[in-house]
Amino acid sequence: ACKIPSAGETTKQADVGFTPKYILITRATCPHCPPVKALVAEYKDIEGKLYDADTEEGLAVAQKYGVMSTPTLIAVDAEGNELGTAHDEVEGKQLLDTIRVGIANAK
Q: Is residue 91 over pLDDT 90?
């Protein structure tokens, strides 16, 4: 896992912009991030958003969810509340499969 640098105190609120079913937080220099990015790309039926923790927006989202390392995959509900997290491909697949079942049951 790649550590996310602390930005100290911030008053800026993270603006996710829409209601995703997952949020993936990565860093360009993270060697563990590409496999998880590839994994979420396989789940085209699940809405989600990717953030780079090295950007101001990505860091704000990471801080909002208490993310300390990348990759971090977060399942969220309609209000953006965290439902679960994953940090690698195996955990990520389990989390995405759970989201998929939840979507199917909601229909």
A: yes
Helix axes 33-42, 89-106, angle to 10 degrees: 20
Residue whose structure tokens are 């989600």? 48
Q: Are 50 and 76 in contact (CB under 8 A)?
A: no
d(CA 58, CA 4): 10
CA Rg value for the chain: 13
84: closest CA among 73, 68, 69? 73
Angle at 13 between CA 41 and CA 99, to 5 degrees: 30
Q: What is the pTM of this model?
A: 0.81
26: β partners: 52
Residue with tokens 């979420």: 40
**In sequence order, what are the residues at sequence separation of 6 or more whose Cβ sits closer than 8 angstroms to the Cβ of residue 60?**
10, 12, 13, 14, 15
Q: Rounded CA gap, 47 and 34, in Å? A: 19
